[in-house]
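Let's do one together. I've listed all components of the complex below, 604 residues spread over two lines.
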Amino acid sequence: MSEQITEEKVAVSLEEDTCSRCSICYSLCPFEAIKRDTETGKFLLEIEKCQVCGICASACPSKVIDIYYYDIASLVSYLERAKKKYASDTLLIMCKGSAPDINGIESLFGIKKFVPLSVPCVGRIPEEVFIRALLMGIRKIYVLACDEDFCRFERGSPLEGRRIAALNILLEQLGYGKEAITLKRKSLKVLLKEDRCIACGNCVYYCPWDAPKLVSPGNVKIDMDLCHGCGLCVSMCPAFALDLENWEKDRISLLISQLAAEMTPPRILVFCCQWAVFPALDDEPNKNTRFIYLPCAARVDIAHVVEAFHTGIDGVLVAACAEEDCKLEGAGGKIQRPLAALQKRLGEIGYGEQLHFCTVAPRYPEAFTRELAQFSEKIAGIQKGESA
Amino acid sequence: MIITTQKPLDEILGLISPYKNVLIVGCDGCTQPPRGIREAETLSQLLELGSRQRNKQFAFKVNTLVKQCDSHLTAVALKDMIDGDLEAVLSLACGLGPQTIASLYPELPVFPAQNTVFMGSEEREAGTLEERCAACGDCVLGLTGGICPVSRCAKSLLNGPCGGSQNGKCEVDPNKDCAWALIIERLDKLGRLYVLEEIQPAKDHQAVARPGKITL
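Okay, and this is what the predicted structure of the assembly comes out as:
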């Protein structure tokens, strides 16, 4: 068993021997995953604590931290491909957590055409990527980060703010104008449709931050300064009176039908937390599988799961963070109970095996791949059984 | 609140199978778990999924009502939901909802989608709904420290506990608390244990003559 664990591929590793022991990673890591061996002075990475935010790798002056996701080389090669594909000299780097749709981007930045680069937390983008983008012929860079207090990785958004301020000063000296890189901040918030609210109080109970308050007679008020945009209240609202910005019910429904139309059997739809499974930058996925990367597994709505089956999806896989990894006070795990109840009901009409819930973490990149492969095999088996 | 459980989908499909145009109507009242528009929509989709295997096609309409037990509110709201094509109504309310609708529309078949199980309250942390009142018509909570032995003791004892109380749990189901152990603990804390020295007479089961009726 222990052998298996040591053999599991990890997403981040620190080359202890060539490390210059500058301690930058140690001081930046939001999760205290890097520790200093007091006897040898070496810095060590504790992978179990690591959340793969990439801040350490982006800040390491000696480049001794190896990261599986979005390392400099893959970011740069993506930019080269994407620049051609989108035929634009404007780059927009977004934190996946706060990224709005195309209309939202236009109202925020006033741009319609751009090269998109969406990553879990912009704090992982080092100076080098900005410079390489400019060298590639990018003329203007916009960055959309989460509000500092709402950064899922605590230090990612503030760090990138400082980085961009320093870069802008350097770039101005080089003749790139006053603001070569424009940074804006935004965080997802819940939307309340007061006319649909039945004042049941579900949102008040489920919110990990006590943002909604139920006041008599029958009226919900939400303190948006407290809302972290996890979407749990939305998924739990019996009256569809709540929605999550960018992840509204109707928008997800539309996405499900679009994705279902692209797929070939056995069709597998994965609802996953953006922080449990990191998406590929631009890989074309296979025709059987499509992903909906939600801001938290808490926004996995049983209505959407049922709708997926309804639209012709053969298997629904839900991938969430384990409770100890949840960046939103365990909100993601709360969805397990309604999913289990749904699974029981699906079982009554012969769909029980076609829904699967798993917890994974990006620190073990192969963990999710394995879950998906096993589930795909099972769904393909069920299909074969049906056609036989 | 009134606690309900979903009927098995197979049973519901059986009930509504003679009809095509069915109104599925939720209730935003006290029913727990909530049986509002979300539940109504989810149920309609599950039934459609289930009907595919039976080569049956339904045309569902989905809506919700404020509280189905209020015949006036229900009558006003249902008027806009019921048209000539409608063949049956499937109600997500407790047992009161289908009866209200049946009395309003004598010509329309109405079916329950729920089994109504008890009156209770929600223990959110544990994720449970627990029976707390039996509507006995002769409340003893004042003598029992605010804990109802009629609904929470398996034997509805008025002079408990019985010999089956084991370490605070009930012999009938060791996962359930012995109500009388809770009552004694609470009365002790309140310094009111002496209340139990008086033996309570047998329960008057005619305190509410069925069917209950009160004139306002």
